[in-house]
Amino acid sequence: MNPVIEVRHLIKHFPLAGNFWGRQRAVLRAVDDVSLAIRPGETLGLVGESGSGKSTVGNCILRLVEPDRGEIYCQGQAVHSLKGNDLRRIRRRMQMVFQDPQSSLDPRMTVQTIVGYPLKLQRLAASSTEVAERVEHILTEVGLGREHLDRYPHEFSGGQRQRIGIARALITEPAFIIFDEPTSALDVSVQAQILNLIKTLQHRHGYAYLFISHDLTVVRHISHRVAVMYLGIFVESAAKGDLFEQPAHPYTRALLASAPKPNPDIRQELAVIAGDPPSPVHLPSGCRFHPRCPEAMPICRQKAPKTKNIGGDRADKLHRVCCHLY
Ligand SMILES: Nc1ncnc2c1ncn2[C@@H]1O[C@H](COP(=O)(O)OP(=O)(O)OP(=O)(O)O)[C@@H](O)[C@H]1O
């Protein structure tokens, strides 16, 4: 199957503000050559410590942040070169669900208006009657009845608000959805319900998902493949089973070793590895993980490793790792 979304060599550097007296301006390398492909019905989980560049990858794919370089294809269409109305049109096929439903829903709008708004914005419905019908249908899909149509966001629980956020993303019938930490603001019991809803919707419609999270349990539950991000690059990516059973990169191994055993009732946050990540402005020489790596060799200080495939050739068997050990 062809990928729904494909990203090739994505780069996003943020120039730092300030006066550098003629010296070259320092840049923060938020995303530094990332490639990925996601097929219909597939979820790619994206994990990594805070600041590793996960959200920037998602924002660049949707062009909410302008990439510096790289190619982005949605169902074969070159998103990176679209402008104006063409860019607006492709956004109906690529949607995002945010972490905090409280702040991403306008408190002055009713559910009817919030969920129907993308249809109006993109002129995807012929009449207000059609908008109303489609809103009602999509609310049922996410487990909310028509009695909620005229209520405001503050009248809902956190889980219900996230259902509204999901309905708003689904109303344009997208092929690809980015979930950026969609359950981290929710209680653990509600979190499970939302994750199951996200999975059910994927089974029903074949959506491709990019699922960004700090939480290894959540990523393990929801993903088919997983990519591990460290300081702007993917250090490892593989099918979920391979990544969790046979982690190859020392960073992935450290993440898994430091996480408690799988327990759906416990959040498994990252950021428990010895030492802080170096600054993305002043990256270490060679491999960017070497100052924290228990297996660092002399070459790791000198030369950045290339990404190699240590798995099979089939798309679902690829196991890519960026490390001098391989
Ligand atoms: N608009 C911006 N201007 C300058 N720097 C930015 C901007 N957006 C993100 N960054 C920086 O880029 C780096 C990557 O940020 P990003 O939010 O993508 O990381 P993340 O892995 O999603 O982190 P978190 O899990 O905390 O959301 C960080 O160092 C961040 O401070």
From TrEMBL:
Could you list this entry's UniProt keywords, alphabetically sorted.
ATP-binding, Nucleotide-binding, Transport
**InterPro entries this protein is in?**
AAA+_ATPase, ABC_transp_ATP-bind, ABC_transporter-like_ATP-bd, ABC_transporter-like_CS, Oligopep_ABC_C, P-loop_NTPase
Recorded hits in Pfam families, A to Z, give: ABC_tran, oligo_HPY
Which CDD domains does the annotation name?
A: ABC_NikE_OppD_transporters
Molecular-function GO terms, alphabetical: ATP binding
Q: Does the keyword Transport apply?
A: yes
Residue ranges occupied by any ABC transporter domain in the UniProt entry: 5-256
Stretches of the chain forming a coiled coil according to its record = none
Family indicated by similarity: Belongs to the ABC transporter superfamily.
Question: Know the name of this protein?
Answer: Peptide ABC transporter ATP-binding protein
Organismal lineage: Bacteria, Pseudomonadati, Thermodesulfobacteriota, Desulfobulbia, Desulfobulbales
